[in-house]
Amino acid sequence: GQQVMQIPQYQHVQEGEDFTTYCNSSTTLSNIQWYKQRPGGHPVFLIQLVKSGEVKKQKRLTFQFGEAKKNSSLHITATQTTDVGTYFCAGGSGNTGKLIFGQGTTLQVKP
Amino acid sequence: DAGVIQSPRHEVTEMGQEVTLRCKPISGHNSLFWYRQTMMRGLELLIYFNNNVPIDDSGMPEDRFSAKMPNASFSTLKIQPSEPRDSAVYFCASSLHRGGYEQYFGPGTRLTVT
Questions:
Q1: Which DSSP letter does residue B32 get?
Q2: Could you tell me which chain A residue has the CA closest to the CA of B95?
Q3: Neighbour count for residue A60 (Cβ, 10 Å)
Q4: Which residues of B touch A41 (CB under 8 A)?
Q5: What pLDDT is attached to residue B61?
Q6: By the 8 A CB rule, do B74 and B13 touch?
Q7: Inter-chain residue contact B50 with A94, CB threshold 8 Å
Q8: CA–CA distance from B36 to each of B74, B92, B110 (Å)?
Q9: Which among A3, A4, A42 is the top mutation candidate for probing chain B, defined by the most B β-carbons within 10 Å of its own β-carbon?
Q10: What is the mean pLDDT of residues A32-51?
Q11: CA distance A93 to chain B (A)
Q12: What DSSP assignment string belongs to A49-103?
């Protein structure tokens, strides 16, 4: 079945350093969504990418969708302690609404 | 606006007991999803409904698990009988449309089966 792999599993950075997490799907996706889950919290939607090669920015966060619509990345510039949490990518296929979540990347930021 | 509401927030039960988790989706949303999150397996989709109809239950682990959505504002996930390996955080999420729309997660129910 469809699988979404995400790396790395964990990342520790010093505050101010950049951070990137990568997501790869075994199949072509119709869209990819990114979520953030704070420790003890629930996943919160960040953004959705739909078009091949699409790039979107939210302040210090940059999201990319690959040309083949099988991979994606999230890059955070100059991390802050508020960026701590687990970042999930979630791939959608067709028009079913079903999302397959990656394992997530847990980001720790040292002040 | 009220978000997705789940109850109870915490549940501790003994092996063999029946457990019922409840979810109220955001008003107007027509898709509802049940997920289970563990350290080992991450976030797994168990089942989802569209317009109260179960669309895909391929993620339901065993016959001990069942889910219902009797109306647009209420869903339950039942485990009978419960086992220690069912211990996890169970999230309910809802979305406005079945395709490509963001999902809004509830706060989750932390289930511990002893």
A1: E
A2: A97
A3: 14
A4: 107
A5: 87
A6: no
A7: no
A8: 18, 9, 10
A9: A42
A10: 96
A11: 9
A12: E-STT-EEEETTEEEEE-TTSSEEEEEESS--GGG-EEEEEEEE-TTS--EEE--
